Every structure is written in structure tokens, then in C-alpha cells.
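User: Can you recover a sequence for this backbone? Please restate the input before giving your answer.

Assistant: Of course. Working from this structure:
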């Protein structure tokens, strides 16, 4: 109905004189096409009767409420909504609930109405005007865009009925569907679930005003819903009945309409068309609502008012647009409240997956395939992640966004557990398996929140000697094929970034050798559309050179020379190319053989991808900005003048950050029992620190809650992975561990007792040398840092009970707070319950964590402290090259960096064949190198290979794919 029609209706209305004390307080001043008014009519008793309950009030003009005076109940809703808003802003002063209106055409009337009402509450209202004849695709595109906008808390679709298609409604996020019009919202309301969607504003207003106009309880009252159909009618009927009333539905064509109207205590007109409700049908004292904005309200009101003998106690309310807008805005505030509540720490609701262990234990891949993982979005919801914090990669893995750290920044961390090991055999001793078994026991059996944080395996060992690294038996990450192969592409991103640096180095050397300063400058700072500009990374280089200039034309010839010439010395380039495959023939090659390279051939090296400094940076960075800074300061070589050349000097650091922007997000997976796992980073444990990422640990520590556990694993033995975890990773993260779990096996201890590798020997070897040398030493190393130690004896089927008891006894005598056998490989988490109890008990003990050395000590003293206190050496011996490098790094200001020793993992010494706990040796330092971007100095002890080679019979002989089922066989 047009605004003029409403004004005319109101101005022609006269209240009969028989209404003692009746009056008209005002007329509507401004009315949009859908009338913004609440009409309330109440009669007085006939002459000599009782005092009237209400006076007629057509709404006094008021700019506060878009030209109408709200009914008392409406004012109450506004005040309550304002109170909710104030409570929100006390929790977060910056928060402002926001409603977005999507409409076809550019009519601003609805925006104005919403804006005026929103000012009273404190909301923000925005309008998105599409073309009047907009398509379904355009509407859905806008809905999806606003769905993902964290600043929008409610969507209002002001569209023609034909445009609100099923596809449009399905696109609405339930949490932003403040009209309650989507199928999901309707279904939840009908089912009785009010926790997800919202009650449609029309229905909210009806229920609110029913309560307001009732002198007595509504229990048992009859409400007639007239003229409606579809979801609104069904939802209204369900909610009326849920409020204790009796709902009857009818249509204008019903034969029994008169009797149904006369029996009703309230009538709600959903659709009227051209139909009128005869006033003499209405039961005295009943309430009539018209929710149809096209209804000719004036006609009905005049007819009711003309029948004085009938309506002396009828209350008549015509419910049109403005109350609906009010309840929409109330839902927006409610949506914002939910939004903030969801961003608080949420208790876990983890559903574990039952295991059914078999005997004998099947192969790892058979076990993995027999267990169906939960959908990763379900797992994420169970542990308190929000949908917008998840980037799903298929069904079983997802990246987790770092925004989680900001959301939970005030949440206390959980307990931090490191799994390390004794000096291993070449096949390893099962640290990953223990890590997974422990978190399965903690979460699935003890019901304590726990997270495993693991390194991503390299393709090198997967296809080389060791095979997969997802754990083993009934303690592994699933699906193991995805875990062991490409995962989410992080290692590929590192390979691409690393080799981009290598390509930039060789290209720069070539161009500098074949061009003049002027030609180089013109190419490095080209004229684009007649304008020359420095890029931001070039301005950074100028500033490092002491030039505070931004105009390319202002540089002198000397400044241009300094700017364009990196003057890299080809013999002092330290950056290697990488590939994630064991390829021994790439250890040293010659590049630049083509004639187009103009004689710039040189010898280069390939490392395995996980040995890249970029991998170490990924593992130590605490955010995107920190990663960018570390990438920029990576030193790739030295100039002929003796100055370090960085990735930022090459101009490539911004591009590296782009390649790594997704890799910095940890990958969420799960164990066989459905407990969460973060897989992130996998730095080489020889020349890097060999631990998963700082970010994965930090995210997990927030998610598990104050009483939960994060179990992370360090590479190789305690002398390598654990020492680097404490002295490098904990310095970078600022985190302090609560417990160290030291993994030991009977087979390894026998080897350290003098037996051949991985062969069973006598208990005497176990007792007199293995346990009382290597195990004791590794426990002592952990205790150097002031952290309680629990020894986990990883049980093999060949171990005897006497051997297991002996190891546990000696471990306790050597200073472990506890020592327990673990049967997780054969039993899953159930076989690790004893270890879980021991870790839980140790985590409550006093912790005197300390670093091994002060960073301000000279580099030589830091190296010596590790050699003597951790390895058991008498002293160190520096080669001339090592001494020269240390002097150079001190000169460059890197003397305060921590030390990352690069030595064999097969012995506490530098000699792989020396088992047990060797003493009386001098540790030779043949070279010292720097990973300035990662932030450590790494001395090389003995001969270290950063590119493994394939054995005679690699693992890939057993790996195959069924072309019909696409199942992988032989992976492990």
C-alpha cells in the first residue's frame, strides 16, 4: 500500500463519540511504501460501564522512531537490546554490531528506517543495492561475500519474493540469517533448536505483543493463524504451541471460519488479500494482529470501530514493518553476542574413534585403511576451531589460520611435553609412535585434551630407507598415505622458494658481469608509462646503503654503482639448490654450461629440501611478519669486498613470502583414535634444529586449555633434537616445557652395550653398558635443563618382561621421575595409559627450566659448553677455516646467535661407531656456517651429508598403486 493511501486512511478516520475519553494523539508524518506503524485500538465500555482499558493511540509523530511512537512493549525491546549492546561493548569496546541490507534497486527508505532505529541501539547499517532486475547469481555472490565479512553480523534480504530462491536462502550462513528465513533456520526452529538460527522477526513481534496484551497467563489460550501458508505459518504454529498456547490454522475460504474466529483468544492474519475480518465475529477481549503489509488496515479498523456493542473490550493491533525491523536489529545484536562468545575459548567435545586391535598386528597401511577418519571440519568443531579459521584440503586435512592466536591470546597455555630419545639405531626407536600413542591415551582414554605436534616427513626417507613417518601399528596419523606424501604442499613451497633464490643469484651474477652500471640501473628501475619508481624492496636496499632517497633521478653515479652492484663472489656463495628426493648425484654439479650463460659456469650443490634454511625459518617463525623478516635477512653469499649479501639485497624476499604464505599455516590431521594432530615443518635434524614448528605448538597450547597437553617431538637423540629444542626453539618461542618423555628400546640399549646393530643380545649387555651408559647420559642431558624426565620404553614383541623391568628400574635410579613400558604399537592409546598417568603426574612437579648457555657468551664458549656438557667431550678443536668463520660472524654482529651443532645422530660423539657414552675425546669442528635468517650458527662436526643417497634396494621397490581402486600398497 502506498504512503499516500496510508495517510489518507489515517486522516479520514474518526473515532465515534460513544467512546468516552477517546482521542487521536497524532498522525503519521512519514510513511514508506510498507507502513512503519503500530496501530492500537482499544474501546471504552458503553455509557455507565467500566473504565476503558486503553485509549486509541495512532502514534504521535516522533523523529526518534521514524515518525511513530512505539508501543510500550516495543520500547521495552529497544531498551533490552540497548542493554545487551552495552554489555557487548564492555567486553569489547571496539565491537559494533552491523546489519547489511541486500536489495534490488536504489530505494533508500528501508535504509533510512533502519538507520534511525539503529541509532537508538548503536548498530551500524549498510546497504548493498543490486540492479533492480538482478540475477540469482549476483545475489548469491553478494550473500557469500558478506557471509565471510567478519564485520557483518546480520543479513537482511529486501528482495522481491521471486528473488529469494532456495539457492539464495541456502547460501545464507545460519548465524547471519537474522530474518530466520533459510531452510536450515526454519528446520532448527521447528525441531525446537533455538541455539543456531533466529526466530523470524514477524513471529518474535507477535509473541512479544501477545504477552504484552494478555492480562493473564497465555497457557491454554487459543490462537488462530489465518490466511498463511508455507514456512512462516508452520514456524509460527510451532512456536505458539511451544509457548503453551493452542494453535489453529485456517484460511479465508474455510467453511468454519466464523466459529474458529469466535473461539480464538487471538487472531494472527498472515495474508489477507482483499478479505476483511467482520468485527462481530471477534470474541470480546481478543487480540487481532495483521502481519500482511498489503492489508487495507483502514477498512478493517473502521468496520471494527463502527460496531460499538461488540468491541467494547477488543484490542486491535495491526503489526506492520517497523516492529519487524526492530526485531531484526535485536537479532543482529544477538548474532554479534554469539559471534563474540564463539571467539572465546570453547571446551572440547571430542568424540574418539574406537580401535579394535588385531593379533598379529597388521601392516601400518592396513591399519590406517581400516579406520575411517572423522571429517576434518567435524574434528575442528570438536576442538573449538571456528569455520573461518579452517582451510580444508579434501576430507581429512586442513590448514589452520594464524588468526586463532589473536582470538585466544588471553587463553592460558596448556602443559608442554617434549618427546626425545636415546641415541637411536639406524631405524629409529619410535619417538613418533610414542608421541601419537601418548596423545591417544590422554584424549581418548583419560579424557584430557591433548594435541600431537609432528614434523612433516620428507619424500627422501619415505622412498629411501625408513619408509613412512606417520607412527606405526595402532599409534599413527591417518590417512597415512596423505601424511607421508604431498600433504598440503608445504615442502613443495619451500623447494620453489629456495630455488627461486638460487635462480636469482645466478641471474644477478650474469647480468652484473655483462652490463654497465647505467644499463643495469635502467633495467632494475625501468620507466613505466614515462615514470620511474623504486619498488619498496629497492627503497629498503637504498636505506641499508645509507641513501635516504626515493627519486630514481637523484642518485649520483657512485650511488648508482653501490645500488646495482651486489658483486657476489661466485666462490663464496653459500646458498644451495634443493630437491625433496635422495639424489646423491646432485651433491655436487656444474651449472652454466650453455653458451648463453657466457662463461658463468660454476660448481653448485643440492641439499634435500628439508635441509633448506627456509624450512628452518618456517619452523621457528612466530607469524607472517616474523617469517618475512627472517626470509629477508637470509645470507646467500659474500661480496668480493667481504660483505654479506642477503635475499633482500637480491630483491626476492617479498616473492619468497608470497610462496610461503600458505605453508606457514599448520596442517590439522588426526590419530587412529580421532584425536587432533598438527603436522608442520620438518627441518633437517643434523644441520637444523629438527623440531616441528613454533606456530603449531603455540596454536595447540591455546586450543587444549590450561589443563590440556601438547606433545611435540624432537628429532634423533636427546643430544641433538632435545638440546636444540631447548636452546634454539624455546628461545624463539618463549615457551617452557613441563616434561620430557625419553624414548628407549631394549634393542637400542643392547646395541649401546656392545651388540651389533639391531640384533638381540643378552641382558648383561643391556644392564652393564646400555642402560648404565647411554640411557643414564641421556637422562642427565635432560636434567641439565631442569625439566622432569619420564622414560618410555617402547616395547617390541621380542622384549622379555625381565628386560623391561630392568630398564625401568635403572632409569629411575638414573634420575627419571618415572619409567614405564609402552604397548601402543599393539594396543593404541590403551597401551599407553600408564605413560599418560606418569606424564600427568610429572607435569605437576616443580620445573626449574634453564638454558644451557647465555647467548652473550663468545661463540667458541657456547660450542664448548655443548661439546662438554651434552656430548661428554674433553674439549673442542677448531680448524683454521672454523676459526676464520667465527671471527667473520663476530665481525658481522652474529656472535649472540645460538648454536645448532651438525653432527652424527648415531653416537653421542662425532664418531658413529662409538656407542654407549664415549668420553675422553676431542670434538673436531671442521667448519662453521650461519643460518642468519633462521637465527643460529651451525658448526660442522666431522663429515656431514645434507643430501642422502638411495640404498641398493630403496623402499620404492615395494610401493605401488592399484589403477582400479587407487589404493597405495607398500608405503610402509
Amino acid at each position: 500500500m502506498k504512503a499516500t493511501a496510508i495517510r489518507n486512511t489515517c486522516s479520514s478516520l474518526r473515532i465515534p463519540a460513544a467512546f468516552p475519553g477517546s482521542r487521536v494523539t497524532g498522525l503519521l508524518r512519514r510513511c514508506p511504501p510498507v507502513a512503519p506503524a503500530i496501530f492500537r485500538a482499544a474501546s471504552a465500555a458503553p455509557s455507565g460501564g467500566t473504565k476503558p482499558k486503553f485509549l486509541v493511540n495512532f502514534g504521535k509523530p516522533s523523529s526518534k522512531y521514524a515518525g511513530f511512537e512505539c508501543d510500550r512493549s516495543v520500547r521495552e525491546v529497544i531498551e533490552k537490546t540497548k542493554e545487551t549492546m552495552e554489555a557487548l561493548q564492555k567486553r569489547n569496546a571496539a565491537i559494533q554490531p552491523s546489519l547489511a541490507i541486500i536489495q534490488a534497486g536504489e530505494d533508500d527508505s528501508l535504509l533510512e528506517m533502519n538507520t534511525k532505529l539503529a541509532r537508538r541501539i548503536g548498530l551500524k547499517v549498510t546497504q548493498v543495492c543490486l540492479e533492480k532486475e538482478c540475477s540469482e547469481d549476483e545475489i548469491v555472490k553478494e550473500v557469500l561475500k558478506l557471509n565471510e565479512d567478519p564485520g557483518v553480523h546480520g543479513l537482511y534480504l529486501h528482495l522481491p519474493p521471486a528473488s529469494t530462491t532456495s539457492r539464495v536462502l541456502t547460501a545464507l550462513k545460519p548465524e547471519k540469517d537474522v530474518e530466520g528465513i533459510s531452510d536450515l533456520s526454519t528446520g532448527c526452529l521447528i525441531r525446537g533448536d533455538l541455539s543456531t538460527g533466529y526466530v523470524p522477526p514477524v513471529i518474535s513481534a507477535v509473541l512479544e505483543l501477545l504477552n504484552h496484551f494478555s492480562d493473564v497467563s497465555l497457557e491454554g489460550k487459543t490462537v488462530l493463524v489465518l490466511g498463511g501458508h508455507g514456512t512462516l505459518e508452520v514456524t509460527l504454529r510451532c512456536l505458539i504451541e511451544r509457548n503453551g498456547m493452542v494453535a489453529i490454522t485456517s484460511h479465508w475460504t474455510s467453511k468454519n471460519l466464523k466459529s474458529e474466529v469466535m473461539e480464538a483468544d487471538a487472531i494472527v492474519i498472515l495474508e489477507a488479500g482483499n478479505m476483511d475480518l467482520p468485527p462481530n465475529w471477534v470474541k470480546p477481549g481478543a487480540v487481532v494482529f495483521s502481519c500482511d503489509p498489503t492489508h487495507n488496515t483502514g477498512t478493517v479498523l473502521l468496520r471494527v470501530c463502527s460496531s460499538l456493542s461488540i468491541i467494547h473490550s477488543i484490542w486491535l493491533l495491526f503489526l506492520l514493518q517497523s516492529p519487524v525491523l526492530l526485531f531484526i536489529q535485536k537479532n543482529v545484536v544477538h548474532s554479534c553476542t554469539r559471534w563474540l562468545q564463539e571467539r572465546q575459548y570453547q571446551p572440547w567435545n571430542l568424540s574418539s574413534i574406537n580401535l579394535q586391535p588385531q593379533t598379529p598386528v597388521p601392516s601400518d597401511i592396513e591399519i590406517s585403511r581400516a579406520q575411517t577418519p572423522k571429517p576434518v571440519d567435524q574434528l575442528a568443531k570438536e576442538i573449538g576451531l571456528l569455520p573461518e579459521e579452517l582451510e580444508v584440503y579434501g576430507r581429512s586435512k586442513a590448514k589452520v589460520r594464524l588468526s586463532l592466536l589473536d582470538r585466544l591470546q588471553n587463553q592460558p597455555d596448556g602443559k608442554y611435553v617434549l618427546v626425545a630419545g636415546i641415541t637411536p639405531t639406524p631405524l629409529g626407536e619410535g619417538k613418533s609412535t610414542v608421541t601419537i600413542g601418548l596423545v591417544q591415551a590422554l584424549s581418548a582414554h583419560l579424557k584430557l585434551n591433548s594435541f600431537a605436534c609432528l614434523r612433516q616427513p620428507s619424500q627422501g626417507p619415505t622412498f629411501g630407507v625408513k619408509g613412512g613417518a606417520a607412527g606405526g601399528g595402532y599409534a599413527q596419523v591417518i590417512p597415512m598415505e596423505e601424511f607421508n606424501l604431498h600433504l598440503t604442499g608445504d615442502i613443495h613451497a619451500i623447494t620453489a622458494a629456495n630455488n627461486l633464490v638460487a635462480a636469482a643469484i645466478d641471474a644477478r651474477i650474469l647480468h652484473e658481469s655483462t652490463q654497465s652500471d647505467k644499463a643495469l640501473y635502467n633495467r632494475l628501475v625501468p620507466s613505466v608509462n614515462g615514470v620511474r619508481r623504486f619498488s619498496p624492496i629497492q627503497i629498503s636496499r637504498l636505506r641499508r646503503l645509507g641513501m635516504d632517497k626515493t627519486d630514481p633521478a637523484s642518485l649520483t653515479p657512485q650511488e648508482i654503482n653501490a645500488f646495482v652492484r651486489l658483486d657476489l663472489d661466485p666462490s663464496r656463495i653459500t646458498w644451495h639448490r634443493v630437491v625433496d628426493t635422495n639424489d646423491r648425484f646432485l651433491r655436487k654439479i656444474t651449472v652454466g654450461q650453455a653458451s648463453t650463460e657466457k662463461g658463468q659456469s660454476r660448481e653448485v650443490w643440492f641439499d634435500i629440501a628439508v635441509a633448506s634454511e627456509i624450512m628452518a625459518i618456517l619452523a621457528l617463525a612466530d607469524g607472517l611478519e616474523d617469517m618475512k623478516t627472517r626470509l629477508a635477512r637470509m645470507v646467500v653469499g659474500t661480496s668480493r669486498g667481504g660483505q654479506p649479501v642477503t635475499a633482500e639485497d637480491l630483491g626476492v624476499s617479498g616473492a619468497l613470502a608470497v610462496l610461503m604464505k600458505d605453508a606457514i599455516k599448520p596442517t590439522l590431521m588426526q590419530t587412529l583414535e580421532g584425536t587432533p594432530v598438527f603436522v608442520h615443518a620438518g627441518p633437517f635434524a643434523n644441520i637444523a634444529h629438527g623440531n616441528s614448528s613454533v606456530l603449531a605448538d603455540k596454536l595447540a597450547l591455546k586450543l587444549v586449555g590450561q589443563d590440556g597437553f601438547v606433545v611435540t617431538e624432537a628429532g634423533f637423540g636427546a643430544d641433538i633434537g632435545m638440546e636444540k629444542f631447548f636452546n634454539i626453539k624455546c628461545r624463539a618461542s618463549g615457551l617452557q616445557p613441563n616434561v620430557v618423555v625419553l624414548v628407549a628400546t631394549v634393542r637400542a640399549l643392547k646395541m649401546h652395550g656392545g651388540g651389533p646393530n639391531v640384533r638381540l643380545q643378552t641382558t648383561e649387555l643391556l644392564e652393564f653398558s646400555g642402560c648404565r651408559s647411554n640411557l643414564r647420559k641421556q637422562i642427565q642431558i635432560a636434567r641439565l635443563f631442569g625439566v622432569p624426565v619420564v622414560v618410555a620404553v617402547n616395547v617390541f614383541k621380542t622384549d622379555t618382561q625381565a628386560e623391561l623391568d630392568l630398564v625401568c628400574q635403572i632409569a629411575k635410579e638414573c634420575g627419571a621421575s618415572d619409567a614405564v613400558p609402552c604397548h601402543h604399537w599393539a594396543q593404541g592409546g590403551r597401551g599407553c595409559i600408564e605413560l599418560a598417568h606418569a606424564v600427568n603426574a610429572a607435569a605437576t612437579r616443580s620445573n626449574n627450566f634453564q638454558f644451557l648457555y647465555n647467548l652473550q657468551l663468545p661463540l667458541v664458549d657456547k660450542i664448548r659448553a655443548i661439546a662438554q656438557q651434552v656430548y661428554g667431550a674433553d674439549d673442542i678443536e677448531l680448524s683454521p677455516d672454523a676459526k676464520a668463520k667465527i671471527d667473520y660472524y663476530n665481525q658481522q654482529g652474529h656472535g649472540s646467535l645460538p648454536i645448532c651443532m651438525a653432527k652424527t645422530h648415531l653416537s653421542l660423539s662425532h664418531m658413529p661407531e662409538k656407542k654407549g657414552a664415549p668420553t675422553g675425546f676431542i670434538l673436531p669442528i671442521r667448519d662453521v656456517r650461519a643460518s642468519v635468517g633462521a637465527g643460529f650458527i651451525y658448526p660442522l662436526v666431522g663429515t656431514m651429508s645434507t643430501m642422502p643417497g638411495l640404498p641398493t634396494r630403496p623402499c620404492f621397490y615395494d610401493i605401488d598403486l592399484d589403477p582400479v581402486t587407487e589404493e597405495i600398497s607398500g608405503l610402509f
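That completes the design. Residues 531 and 552 are 10 Å apart (CA to CA).
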